[in-house]
Amino acid sequence: MYFSGKIEFGVINQSVSAFNHILSDFSLIVYQFQSISAFSAVIDRLGEFDDILDDSESYITEHESNDEVNILFIENKDPSLLVSNGYVPQVGHHQLLKIQNLTLQTPQRKNILITDLSLEINEKDHLLVMGPSGSGKTSFLRALAGLWNTGKGNVIFYVEDAGKHARSVSADTDSSKSEDALKTEEEQRSKNRRPSSVFFLPQKPYMVLGTLRQQLLYPTWSDKIHPDLNNSPGSLPFLSQVPSLADEFDKPEKPTIDDMIQVLERVRLGDILSRFNGLDSIYEWSSVLSLGEQQRLAFARLLLSKPKLVLLDESTSALDGANEAHLYRQIEAAGITYISVGHRMTLQNYHKNILYISKYDARGSERNWHFEPISQTATEANSTC
Ligand SMILES: Nc1ncnc2c1ncn2[C@@H]1O[C@H](COP(=O)(O)OP(=O)(O)OP(=O)(O)O)[C@@H](O)[C@H]1O
Prior knowledge:
This protein has helices at 9-31, 33-62, 79-84, 137-144, 169-172, 179-190, 212-217, 245-250, 257-266, 272-275, 285-288, 291-305, 321-333, 376-384; strands at residues 69-75, 95-105, 112-122, 127-130, 151-159, 198-201, 210-211, 282-283, 309-313, 337-341, 353-357, 369-373. It is an alpha/beta fold.
């Protein structure tokens, strides 16, 4: 066509370049076929995920209920004030926790776990929670920690030293407000606050990345460490929160090096100082320490923090009987009241009362729990086992 003069050479050049362009565009699909199909698979999966989220949202809306478990913090009044008002406080009867008509459900309200539970815990009323696997023991601790609020009822913590708290009722009292208005205001304020005097030890303690010193100071004095909450399976995140102003007031004095060395001896971990070259060496602690050693380290943190109440979720499961007994003796001696979840019968030796939770059966009787004191004879029998 060029030689017959029907077409110019430039047009032929243009056509060749246009053809190459189209060829390279189509080749992209052939060359990138694998990536495009992977991309399409990801989009499909995201679509399915979105559908599941929509379904679960509509499930929650259908089963929506205004009921929830209320966590309240009430101040233990200064005994001297109560005496001047004519009330004589009972000596040795210091209230820590009151649970009122607690019915607990799983987060999407699909299952009931505990029905209508009421009990009170005073100082040194160590409580053991037992029951079959899946009955709701850990969920009960989650509810006490304020992590699960699906259900109904009240969990009341009695908080001390209100004068030190910036947000205390006494500090905020406005004489122009009626007593009822003040009470409602305080109830609102106290809702969803978290007790800094309550400590939680999971079965697998969270090991922070850092030195042995940082392990011991976590979580009470480790303001800069805010671990990924999903990092530690089974751990309750309320200990990992950013400390509030009130927490700052609550914090005990920071331990000295001597305190840290002593506490390691108390939990029978004195040898790790020489094994790992002192308090300031950095290791991946969850790999270099056995689970039993990690559990003892968690007890060392507890003894340094000295909370009023501790929730122990199978926290001694990896320890032998002698070490378990030793640690319970240490926290008892430190004046810490504990609520433990566990399966071993020997645990009864260190507790005063037992709460049995059985699996909820909708056809069965109303309550699926019972509470009773642990008799001396039972503990003696366990000791001889
Ligand atoms: N996030 C969740 N969403 C829905 N259901 C849950 C959730 N977590 C736990 N469950 C269910 O709640 C029930 C109680 O679980 P929980 O962990 O409290 O049992 P447990 O008594 O502590 O068991 P174990 O002795 O085996 O540790 C179980 O049937 C469990 O499958």
